[in-house]
């Protein structure tokens, strides 16, 4: 998804990864935080509470966004989601 959050003045790009698991959430959340520290580059894992799903998302200020950075954000979010969706599902289930 590509969204403009007008009130905050930011662009948010996100990709769904998996549903939030029912059990083992503490270990799951810890793993997401550890991955978001450096492994995800400019992106980070987040929880979409309305859908109860994990997403990879990246936020950028609209005022300084250029096209190359926009392309980089799309690529990063896509690569991180593709890299970790199967791994996290294997590790924590759905």
Strand order of the largest sheet: 1-2-4-3
- Structural category is alpha+beta
Radius of gyration: 14 Å
**How is the biggest beta sheet arranged?**
4 strands, antiparallel
Portion in beta strands:
25-35%
Detail the poorly predicted runs: none
Question: Mean pLDDT, nearest integer?
Answer: 95
DSSP helical segment count: 2
SSE layout and pairings?
Elements: E1 2-5, E2 10-19, H1 25-37, E3 44-48, E4 53-61, H2 67-92
Antiparallel strand pairs: 1-2, 2-4, 3-4
Briefly say what this structure is.
The protein is α+β, with helices and mostly antiparallel strands. About 40% of the residues lie in helices and about 30% in strands.
Question: Overview of this structure, please?
Answer:
The protein is 41% helix and 30% strand. It is α+β, with helices and mostly antiparallel strands and 94 residues long. The protein has helices at residues 25-37, 67-92; strands at residues 2-5, 10-19, 44-48, 53-61. It starts with a strand and ends with a helix. The longest helix has 26 residues, at 67-92. It has two helices and four strands. It has a four-stranded antiparallel β-sheet.
